[in-house]
Amino acid sequence: MAKRVFDFTMALLGLVVLSPLLLLIAIAVKLDSRGPVFYAGERLGLGGKPFGMIKFRSMRPDADRIGPPAAGEDDARITRVGRILRMTKLDEVPQLINVLKGEMSLVGPRPEVAYFFGFYTEEEKAAIWSVRPGMTDYASIHFHDEDKLLAGAEDPVQAYLDLCRDKKVALQMKYIEERSLWVDLKVILATLATVIGSRFSPSKG
Q1: pLDDT in tens, 184-198
Q2: End-to-end distance of the chain based on CA atoms, in angstroms?
Q3: pLDDT in tens, 139-158
Q4: Of 192, 202, 197, 143, whose CA–CA distance to 167 is shortest?
Q5: Domain annotation covers residue 203
Q6: Rounded distance, CA 149 to CA 160, Å?
Q7: What predicted TM-score, i.e. pTM, was given to this entire model?
Q8: Do 54 and 25 touch, CB atoms closer than 8 A?
Q9: Does 204 reside within a domain?
Q10: Count of domains in the chain?
C-alpha cells in the first residue's frame, strides 16, 4: 500500500510539473510526422495481464507491422523527433499515466511484449508477473544504451536475446528480491543520474 501511495503521488506530481514540457513534445511529434502523438504498445503486466504501455510515438505509425519488436538506434522506422526522444528517454514519460492507473509502478521490471516472454522460464514469468512492471529498474540502468547495443544488428531480436535477455532477467529478479521504498528511491535517483550523465556530459558533445 505504501508503494502504491508513493507511486500515485509522485506520478501525479511529475505530470503536473512536466506538463509544459510534455505539451511541447506533443506538438513536436505531431509536426514531425503523420500519426498520433502517443503510442500504446501492448505489454504484459501484473499477473501476465496485457495493458497498453503509453509512450510518445518515436516511430512511424506502421512500425509494428513492418519490423521486429526490438530496434537499434539506426532503425529506419524511427522519426527525427523520435531519435531525440529515445536518446533522452523522454518518450517514456507518459508512462506516468500508466502509474496513475495502477498498471505500472515507478520502479519494477520493465514490461515486455508477449513475444519475448516466450523465452522466459515458468519460474521467471511467475516472479516477474508477481509485481507491477515499472518505468525503471536495475536492468533499465544497466542497459540505458540498449538502442546503441542493438545498432547494426542484422537481426535485432536475436541480438537482444543474445546480449540482453539473461542479464536483464537476472537484474529484474534481483530487484524483486530486494524491493522496498528505499530501494525504489535509490533506483529513481540512479536512473536520473544515468540519463543526465550519459546524454548530457561534455564528452557527448
Answers
A1: 999 999 999 988 876
A2: 43
A3: 989 888 777 777 777 787 78
A4: 143
A5: no
A6: 9
A7: 0.82
A8: no
A9: no
A10: 1
- Asked whether residue 82 is domain-assigned, the answer is yes
The answer to whether 89 touches 141, Cβ cutoff 8 Å, is no
With 80 as the cut, is the pLDDT of residue 37 above it?
yes
d(CA 155, CA 132): 30
105-120 residue pLDDT tens = 999 999 988 888 888 8
Secondary structure (3-state) at 37: coil
- Expressed as residue numbers, the domain containing 66 is 2-197
3-state SS assignment for residue 59: strand
Question: What is the rounded CA–CA span in Å between residue 23 and residue 21?
Answer: 5
Residue whose C-alpha cell reads 530486494 in the numeric block: 178
- Asked if the structure places residue 168 within a domain, the reply is yes
Which DSSP state fits 45?
A: -
Whether residue 38 contacts residue 58, with contact meaning beta carbons closer than 8 Å, is answered with no
The residue assigned the cell 500504446 is 40
Per-residue confidence (pLDDT) for residue 52, from 0 to 100: 95
Tell the burial category of 132 from Cβ atoms under 10 Å away from its Cβ (0-12, 13-18, 19+). Answer: buried
- Side chain identity, residue 205: G
